[in-house]
Amino acid sequence: MAASSPEAAQQQIDEIEALSSIYGEDWCVVDEDEKIYCIKIGDCLDQPKWTLCLQVILPPGYPTSEPPVYQLNAPWLRGQDYTELANSLEEIYIQNLGESILYLWVEKIREVLVEKAQSSNSEPDIKKTTEEVDEDCGNDFLLDYQPVQEDPVEILNYITSESQEVDEELPMIHHGTPLTDRRSTFQAHLAPVVTPRQVKRVLEKLYENKKIASATHNIYAYRIYCEDKHTFLQDCEDDGETAAGGRLLHLMQILNVQNVLVVVSRWYGGILLGPDRFKHINNCARNILVEYNYVHSVEESSKPAGKNKKIRKDNKKRTEH
């Protein structure tokens, strides 16, 4: 990986500020420290039919000497559609070596979505997808159910209720080092999981702890790889901290971890932290994943694949005081 230069660092800052201004709420900071961002793109502003989430990691050498690491997420994006779009982004990068290209990428993706929306009888093929079972970048479920319970444990009841199997063994639960900022405390918890039932059992066990149960928010996300179907089962929960679960799941996808549940507890201390709370949540999560050898570093988990670096294509399932 190329070393960062003052020029590259300033160009990154300028580009991020511009993109944040241009795209507003559609622009999401997943992890500021690791330069991980996501933008939701649609074929139109009001009730888009075709949407896609572009996730990027900006390495130290971008844009002067390194390309962004990227991931394309959409339930309909696979096969030839994915290949053609990836090739288009590759071509834009090559044609603009050394320059900031994220805006060009976003608008190219939007152009593709508009073309699909204008095509006759063209609808997103969501139900036929065999990719990951999860949420899109927004709040709409791709599955046919919408959990209404507020208790995070209850969200998994639908998944596990149809199976009357004997409860599986409770996985080992690990606890990370607490982090405190302006009287708010954050702590991550991690457990290896291979079934939704195990996720439910771990959450129930955690909530038996009075301190954890009393947390203002218990944000969680999990990713389970299904060997037989070659797909991922994954989901997340904000527990009242709007968008925190989705950002945590974004981080876990980009780190490409699997068969693991991460819960981050936050005890609110009475002082608003603003965007820093998301940074603390993801930092706690990343630290515990590193500590228990699910990932060594962001850089190592996103090695180059071809001329331009890509992360595996994952189609995602799915207030502060």
Walkthrough of the structure:
Keywords: Cytoplasm, Repressor, Stress response, Translation regulation. Strands 5, 6, 7, 8, 9 and 10 form a six-stranded antiparallel beta sheet that branches. A four-stranded antiparallel beta sheet has the order 1-2-3-4. The protein folds into two domains: 113 residues, Roll (Ubiquitin Conjugating Enzyme), CATH 3.10.110.10; 150 residues, Ribosomal Protein S5, domain 2 (2-Layer Sandwich). Helices cover 32% and strands 20% of the residues. Helix 2 runs antiparallel to helix 3. By secondary structure, it is of the alpha+beta class. The radius of gyration is 20 Å and the shape is globular.
Q: Could you say which overall geometry the principal axes of the C-alpha atoms support?
A: globular
Please report which band the strand proportion falls in: under 5%, 5-15%, 15-25%, 25-35%, 35-45% or over 45%.
15-25%
CATH topology of the largest domain: Ribosomal Protein S5, domain 2
CATH architecture descriptor text of the largest domain: 2-Layer Sandwich
Tell me the CATH superfamily of the largest domain: Impact, N-terminal domain
Sheet having the most strands? 6 strands, antiparallel
Order of helices and strands: HEEEEHHHEEEHHEEHEHH
Mean pLDDT: 76
How many distinct folded domains? 2
* CATH structural class of the largest domain: Alpha Beta
Query: Percent range for helical residues?
Result: 25-40%
| Number of discrete helical segments | 9
Distance between the termini: 40 Å
Structural class: alpha+beta
The poorly predicted ranges are 126-155, 157-166, 298-319
**Number of DSSP strands?**
10
The radius of gyration computed from the alpha-carbon positions, rounded to a whole number of angstroms, is: 20 Å
